[in-house]
Specification:
Blueprint: H1 3-11, H2 20-28, E1 33-36, H3 44-53, E2 57-61, H4 65-77, E3 82-84, H5 91-102, E4 108-111, H6 113-117, H7 124-128, E5 132-137, H8 160-163, E6 169-173, H9 178-188, E7 194-197, E8 205-211, H10 215-223, E9 230-234, H11 238-250, E10 255-258, H12 264-275, E11 281-284, E12 297-302, H13 309-316, E13 326-332, H14 334-344, H15 350-367, H16 373-380, E14 397-403, H17 405-417, H18 424-431, H19 441-444, H20 457-469, E15 473-475, E16 483-485, H21 489-493, E17 500-506, H22 519-536, H23 540-543, H24 546-555, H25 560-563, H26 571-592, H27 598-601, H28 611-627, H29 632-639, H30 643-656, H31 670-680, H32 685-692, H33 698-713
Parallel strand pairs: 1-6, 1-7, 2-4, 2-5, 3-4, 5-6, 8-13, 9-11, 9-12, 10-11, 12-13
Antiparallel strand pairs: 14-17, 15-16
Bound molecules: adenosine-5'-diphosphate (ADP) and zinc ion.
Zinc ion (ZN) is lined by residues 372-374, 388-389, 392, 394-395.
């Protein structure tokens, strides 16, 4: 069997990713290999596939017991005999496994390093009696002091080559920095190793950084519309994880906390519930995540700035392992940097403190970028990148410079009138003429009160921060930051100094992206999967990934043969689960007049094309049909999309002027929608829909948003 045939048969995938194929080839030829790939890049396959093809046993060293079970369950589901040995098992269970090992019934054995070489129950002598074909060292950076999660027990692996001289070793890690790489090669004593460094770009993740301001409200906004998605929210302190989880529960979200201070049972319970989708949100310190293989994490939020780029990249990398679009959101406050300085200052170690401090500054610089965030991240890891990735907040926005003198004067005089004694939120509310009781009565009498009512709250906050960045204003670093004037303020107020401001406009709001799949079928397929998961007592994503369900809901396979073309169905899973899925897909298609799209899919294509291109094509196609005189219903039927998706496509062309707003919404309804948008901002549709009520549809709102954007540009 060739590696490609094995990939198809056991894993149900049609092609290799990154350098998997070359790596696997080297390993099969008996070479030592070190493979660096980003989290979610597909490292496991680099040793699991050789394990299937090699005659003997593959021993996998992995730091986390929790992770082993998941991996082993997944392999077994794919028809690959695998097992782990660890302290959580009874003597009987362990004996059963050693018996199976002796009779060569197991292809992969997972172990913690101390089980191999440690003082208690060490297995080294027993394993030497078995036909071992390969060692895989997962999370190999744990062997290095330089890595961010050094594990002393990994140092024992230095003896590996003494005991198994001619057995190839593959070391895998997602940590890229040079010192760690060198350490891994040296400590493991690899023989003329082939080193593979994959691109660290995670193209399905959209990176965003937002200035922190009432972060809980910002978070609620972000989570709105993501209620059914799984996500991880990172906080700096243990206490804040618990508080935030409780607050989210109060808002009706399914959330739990996780940090190193919780007792073992609670941690295990919360983690398990998250893996099984019973809890959607894990609010955690960085103690959570290593070895979390859950593939359908749709977003990672940082409520506080991480200490370095390495950690940030690893944490955000936990989103979207299944390759589907995912989000990384960071709420940034310059105050975080000051707080973190204490953390990175080590007593009696100036040199190390300086390294950590520099890393902290690199992280802060990332947060304050005005250029592509992805490019910065990739350059940080010594990788080239284009200037515009099309999927970070910077690249999704358009920046226009304009004469902001009048705006600056309004802001500065408000600060002056408020005697430089109030915070950002208060100044903004005051400028906008908020009727809130929070604004003092005497302030409501002032002339500046309400002079900025024409500018949205969010926009004012951006302007004030920009004025702060340019030194026309100062926002203090206190626990309760106050807005004050500076030496440069006076010239502006007197009209002696012009001020340039930038306006950011979101070109494409990603949540509006419409994949051409059958959403309600997708939901039904999830139910089928959940039934299997419950029956087998496994997390749902171990049964099949979201990406596999999404392919089914997109290509609509009608037979076992066609199902074979869906990525993720190997022989065993096909036989085990295929029929039940077909029993849902076929009637759904019959009822909706849909047919299979598997044939055109032909040789399965990876969905790795840049998203913007894909989106604009599908939108254009809808537009062309609409212009050819077809109704939305007709287009939807012809393209096997939902009418709502088609409407979503079309409303975007109101902004380009190719379609009129009145195609989608009655003239009479526009003012009310416009009002709502002006009060709440155009960024999120759900809150707008909520205030407008049932008489207004998402399509109508979207159309007016597009129209207003066009007006603003004109
Ligand atoms: P890593 O260990 O590098 O973080 P994994 O090995 O867990 O990543 O792989 C991430 C996901 O990608 C898994 O769901 C895996 O099954 C899937 N995957 C790996 N290789 C391929 C491939 N060639 N085609 C499709 N999916 C793949
Ligand atoms: Zn970018």
């Amino acid at each position: 069997m060739t590696p490609l045939q094995a990939l198809h048969k056991y894993f149900g995938y049609s092609e290799f990713r990154h350098e998997q194929e070359t790596i696997i080839g080297r390993v099969l030829n008996g070479h030592d290999v070190m493979a660096l790939m980003p989290t979610g890049g597909g490292k496991s396959l680099c040793y699991q596939l050789p394990a299937v093809l090699l005659p003997g046993l593959t021993i996998v060293i992995s730091p986390l017991i929790a992770l082993m079970k998941d991996q082993v369950d997944s392999l077994n589901l794919n028809g690959i005999p695998a097992a782990f040995l660890n302290s959580s098992q009874t003597p009987d269970e362990q004996r059963n496994i050693t018996d199976r090992l002796k009779s060569n019934q197991i292809k992969l054995l997972y172990l913690a390093p101390e089980r191999l070489f440690g003082t208690e129950n060490k297995l080294i002598d027993f394993l030497k009696s078995l036909p071992v074909s390969l060692f895989a060292i997962d999370e190999a950076h744990c062997i290095s002091h330089w890595g961010h999660d050094f594990r002393p027990e990994y140092l024992m692996l230095a003896h590996l080559k003494d005991h198994f001289k001619n057995i190839p070793v593959i070391a895998l890690t997602a940590t890229a920095d040079k010192l760690t790489q060198k350490d891994i090669l040296e400590k493991l004593n690899l023989r003329q190793p082939s080193v593979f460094i994959s691109s660290f770009n995670r193209e399905n993740i959209t990176y965003r950084v937002t200035p922190k301001n009432k972060s809980f409200n910002q978070l609620l906004n972000f989570l709105d519309g993501r209620r059914d998605d799984s996500g991880i929210i990172y906080c700096l302190s243990r206490k804040s994880t618990e508080a935030l989880a409780a607050d989210l529960k109060d808002e009706g979200y399914s959330a739990e906390a996780y940090h190193a201070g919780l007792d073992h049972a609670t941690k295990a319970r919360n983690q398990e519930a998250f893996l099984r989708d019973e809890v959607k949100i894990m609010v955690a310190t960085i103690a959570f995540g290593m070895g979390i293989n859950k593939s359908n994490v749709r977003y990672v939020v940082h409520m506080d700035m991480p200490k370095n780029i390495e950690g940030y990249y690893q944490e955000t990398g936990r989103a979207g392992r299944d390759g589907l679009p995912s989000d990384a959101m960071l709420y940034y406050s310059p105050g975080d940097v000051i707080k973190l300085k204490n953390f990175v200052t080590l007593d009696n170690n100036e040199e190390q403190s300086q390294i950590l401090f520099d890393k902290l500054n690199d992280m802060a610089a990332y947060c304050e970028l005005h250029t592509c965030r992805r490019k910065y991240l990739l350059n940080y890891f010594d990788e080239q990148a284009t200037d515009n990735c099309g999927s970070c907040d910077i690249c999704l926005s358009e920046f226009k410079k304009f004469d902001g003198t009048l705006i600056a004067q309004k802001a500065l005089s408000a600060v002056a009138r408020l005697n430089q004694r109030f915070g950002l939120g208060y100044v903004v509310d005051f400028l906008r003429g908020s009727k809130s009781e929070k604004i003092r009565d005497e302030h409501k009498q002032l002339k500046t009160y309400g002079v900025g009512a024409d500018i949205s709250k969010a926009q004012w906050q951006r302007y004030l921060r920009e004025l702060n960045a340019h030194g026309y204003l100062q926002i203090t670093d206190d626990a309760y930051p106050i807005v004050k004037l500076t030496d440069k303020s006076e010239a502006v107020l007197k009209g002696q100094q012009k001020v340039e401001l930038t306006e950011a406009q979101i070109i494409e709001e990603k949540t509006e992206e419409a994949l051409p799949f059958e959403a309600s079928l997708f939901d039904q397929l999830k139910v089928v999967r959940l039934n299997f998961a419950t029956m087998e007592n496994l997390p749902a994503y171990v049964i099949l990934s979201d990406a596999t369900l999404l392919e089914m809901a997109t290509y609509l396979p009608q037979s076992m043969d066609e199902l074979r073309h869906i990525s993720g169905f190997g022989d065993v899973k096909l036989a085990r689960y295929g029929r039940e899925f077909l029993e849902v897909i076929k009637p759904y298609c019959a009822a909706n007049g849909l047919t299979s799209k598997v044939k055109p899919k032909a040789a399965k294509q990876r969905q790795s094309k840049p998203r913007s291109e894909k989106v604009s094509n599908t939108q254009k196609e809808s537009l062309n049909l609409f212009k050819a005189g077809k109704s939305i219903q007709q287009i939807a039927a012809e393209r096997s999309l939902s009418p709502m998706t088609v409407e979503g496509h079309l409303t975007l062309f109101v902004q380009t002027g190719e379609l009129e707003v009145t195609e989608f919404v009655d003239q009479g309804k526009i003012p009310a929608i416009q009002d709502a948008i002006e009060s709440y901002g155009p960024e999120r549709l759900a809150p707008l829909k909520e205030v407008l009520g049932d008489n207004y549809s998402y399509t109508e709102i979207k159309a007016v948003v597009s129209w207003l954007k066009r007006e603003a540009e004109a």
